[in-house]
Amino acid sequence: MNFGNIALALALAAGMIALVTYYLWARGRTQLRESARLYTGAMALFVVLASVFQMVNILSRSFEYEYVAKFSDRSLPTLLLIATFWGGQAGSFLLWSLWSVLFGVVLMLGLRRSSWEPFVLTPYLLIALCITGIMWASGPFKMLDNPPADGQGLNPLLQNYWMAIHPPILFTGFTTMAGPFAFAIAALWRRDYDSWVKLARPWILLAWACLGTGLALGGFWAYESLGWGGFWGWDPVENSSFVPWLIASALLHGLVLQGSRGSFKRGNLLLAITGELMVIYSTFLTRSGILGKFSVHSFVELGLMGYLVIFIVGFALLGFGLLAWRWGAIGRRVLYSAVLSREFGLVVSIALFVVITLIVSIGTSMPVISLLPFFSSQASVELGFYGPMVAPFGLLLLLTMSIGPLLSWQRNTYGRLSSALKWPAILTAIALFASLLLNIVYPVALLLLGGAVFAASANVVVILRIWRAGPLKLGGYLSHIGAGLLFVGIVGNAYYKQTVGLQLTQDVPQTVFGRQFTFRNIVLPPNDELKRTAVQVEVTNPQNGGTWIAEAPYYIYAKSGQLVIHPAIQSGLWGDLYIAPSQYIPPAQVAPGRVELLKDQPQTALGYKLTFKQFDMPNRDAMMRGEAPPTVNVVMAVTTPSGATTTITPTLRVAANQALQGDPVPVPGGATLTLTNVDPTNQFVTVQLGGIDLSKVDPSDLKSRVFIDISIEPAIKFAWGGIIIGVLGGLLALLRRWREARPAADAPLSPVPIPTEAYERPALQPAMTPITRTESEARS
């Protein structure tokens, strides 16, 4: 047994002792206080030592360890070598365990003067122990009998510097979601359903900010690495992190409602418990292998499914069972006194977050749901499921973010509200008018864009009103502004992105989007630490004479033989120019006269200029009924070497043996043209010129070629800016709530923290306690 396994074994032993002693302390044996703290610190120390041991193995390239050999190699630069620590399943669990024990120490120190400490640390340590136990089962320190001279290396798609910071931040969010869960269990245990709110707020804010930042960094990585031009694809693994963030958002609003009006106690306890359960469930989805067919991010199964199922079921029984046991004892108040009130706005916001959570959860869980007996096979929902389902509730959420912050807790009038909304309405009208001038005409896009501008500007109005209260009061409103800007970016990019596919012959320029694109060569950029070859495209803007040399990585990853392609991006104020190569054809593979044509993109071969205009399928209905053989006609414009232009319509049909057959069509000048392949989805055809003396072939016809997709990514900066502003708002709110929580955490310790009656089921209390105007005003 190596040092890493010894450290983990000691960590598990210390953690179990800490768990038992904290539980006994909570039951009244206060003499175990120092022992509980000591063993909690010991657990953290041993996990830290195991982590340091793993990092030393990685940095020293100790390939006798299976994990190091599988995820690192000698060619990786230092930062990416460090990132291999969490590049695999076992390593990510080790990172999660490390964060869990470190934040456990923070939680312990923060509550060291509070009677809440044993009640909170008991459920928290139970979670930390489960994570550490699963990490142990994943085997981060397995040894190899025959270590290789070099490792297999990190997945080339993960060799991006965003991935060096994305997982640690995302796992910080996962870890800190355990804080509100532990406080909720402690509140139910102690039968104190109010005091936990101030203590839990900093934890849920930190979780919200880290989950949001982690999701954003994942979006940055996808945008810069995958080449499809987007930053969110509704992938099940993306969704499994998004759902806890949605629940955290709902809980944040619920805690504001309880802290200010004393209501929504049951709802907040339910959300706090559900949030952690969804973190565990997302772990099950991504780590059990159940999404292997449906997600590019999912880990393969490593025998952890059983552990994860026990993890989910056990904590669901603990959390929901305790909540059900205490349900009748939890006082209930009227959620809102009037529709035109801030309370009502918060209730609607919580409901909308919950609805969106349910939609995304059901869609993400289809691979699991479809395993039930009445489904014929495992299946997933189409990506098109999410947008139409979520968009209406997203629009309503924008409206609540606009109106709610402008309402006071007490009396409101429609006149006062309409006066407050005057400037946001004017700014929204201006934005919509400008959108129409820019030819933005999609009704759904205009609705969402208007809602986003309305939400952002309304919260700017609130900030201008309360600016003198200090920056810490602005956090929530800044986050709302960030959400509005994010929606502007999402809508602008989704509805008005422009993409054109080009086939570029080496040194032959083509013009699109007002710029001239010339493929130069496959090069080895001198400043690339990873030594990757790249497609070099020279981009010239005739309007200002500027030139950009785009170098999009395009290489074969030697260790796996995998073709890896990344885009080249030129950032602009209103949009990015995005170049993504898809295929490179070297000169040796260029067949004279064989031409791949994208719609309306002319190509020259053997002296003929060819332009694919459109598909023509006159017998579509007959083919659908099976009364005619599958046939595709393609309308093409042909310009001969002498300058004569004609239009021809070659045909491609499916023969009886399912082979594609095209008949040569005569073209002026004595040549023939045969249609050999079609791709209606991507508007792409392949043709072959014949009947020409190849000894007279132009050398340019044998030059290398590259297929690239060129996109204009509009409004992308609004998305990035919105994310940054939103996270900044969350951090300001975190600082504010942390300061408010300190006095509550410093409440004096009691010799016996809770009376014996707390462990007995209480008699049912009245279900409804109305809140009076006097009490309501006192709470504000």
UniProtKB/TrEMBL annotation:
<dbReference type="GO" id="GO:0020037">
    <property type="term" value="F:heme binding"/>
</dbReference>
<keyword id="KW-0997">Cell inner membrane</keyword>
<dbReference type="InterPro" id="IPR002541">
    <property type="entry name" value="Cyt_c_assembly"/>
</dbReference>
<dbReference type="GO" id="GO:0005886">
    <property type="term" value="C:plasma membrane"/>
</dbReference>
<dbReference type="InterPro" id="IPR032523">
    <property type="entry name" value="CcmF_C"/>
</dbReference>
<keyword id="KW-0812">Transmembrane</keyword>
<feature type="transmembrane region" description="Helical">
    <location>
        <begin position="304"/>
        <end position="325"/>
    </location>
</feature>
<feature type="domain" description="Cytochrome c assembly protein">
    <location>
        <begin position="86"/>
        <end position="288"/>
    </location>
</feature>
<feature type="transmembrane region" description="Helical">
    <location>
        <begin position="267"/>
        <end position="284"/>
    </location>
</feature>
<feature type="transmembrane region" description="Helical">
    <location>
        <begin position="79"/>
        <end position="107"/>
    </location>
</feature>
<feature type="transmembrane region" description="Helical">
    <location>
        <begin position="448"/>
        <end position="467"/>
    </location>
</feature>
<keyword id="KW-0201">Cytochrome c-type biogenesis</keyword>
<comment type="similarity">
    <text>Belongs to the CcmF/CycK/Ccl1/NrfE/CcsA family.</text>
</comment>
<feature type="transmembrane region" description="Helical">
    <location>
        <begin position="389"/>
        <end position="409"/>
    </location>
</feature>
<feature type="transmembrane region" description="Helical">
    <location>
        <begin position="346"/>
        <end position="369"/>
    </location>
</feature>
<dbReference type="GO" id="GO:0017004">
    <property type="term" value="P:cytochrome complex assembly"/>
</dbReference>
<feature type="transmembrane region" description="Helical">
    <location>
        <begin position="421"/>
        <end position="442"/>
    </location>
</feature>
<dbReference type="InterPro" id="IPR003568">
    <property type="entry name" value="Cyt_c_biogenesis_CcmF"/>
</dbReference>
<feature type="transmembrane region" description="Helical">
    <location>
        <begin position="169"/>
        <end position="190"/>
    </location>
</feature>
<feature type="transmembrane region" description="Helical">
    <location>
        <begin position="242"/>
        <end position="260"/>
    </location>
</feature>
<protein>
    <recommendedName>
        <fullName>Cytochrome C biogenesis protein</fullName>
    </recommendedName>
</protein>
<feature type="transmembrane region" description="Helical">
    <location>
        <begin position="38"/>
        <end position="59"/>
    </location>
</feature>
<keyword id="KW-1133">Transmembrane helix</keyword>
<dbReference type="Pfam" id="PF16327">
    <property type="entry name" value="CcmF_C"/>
</dbReference>
<feature type="transmembrane region" description="Helical">
    <location>
        <begin position="6"/>
        <end position="26"/>
    </location>
</feature>
<comment type="function">
    <text>Required for the biogenesis of c-type cytochromes. Possible subunit of a heme lyase.</text>
</comment>
<feature type="transmembrane region" description="Helical">
    <location>
        <begin position="718"/>
        <end position="735"/>
    </location>
</feature>
<feature type="domain" description="Cytochrome c-type biogenesis protein CcmF C-terminal">
    <location>
        <begin position="308"/>
        <end position="580"/>
    </location>
</feature>
<keyword id="KW-1003">Cell membrane</keyword>
<feature type="transmembrane region" description="Helical">
    <location>
        <begin position="119"/>
        <end position="138"/>
    </location>
</feature>
<feature type="transmembrane region" description="Helical">
    <location>
        <begin position="202"/>
        <end position="222"/>
    </location>
</feature>
<dbReference type="Pfam" id="PF01578">
    <property type="entry name" value="Cytochrom_C_asm"/>
</dbReference>
<feature type="region of interest" description="Disordered">
    <location>
        <begin position="758"/>
        <end position="780"/>
    </location>
</feature>
<feature type="transmembrane region" description="Helical">
    <location>
        <begin position="474"/>
        <end position="496"/>
    </location>
</feature>
<dbReference type="InterPro" id="IPR003567">
    <property type="entry name" value="Cyt_c_biogenesis"/>
</dbReference>
<dbReference type="GO" id="GO:0015232">
    <property type="term" value="F:heme transmembrane transporter activity"/>
</dbReference>
<keyword id="KW-0472">Membrane</keyword>
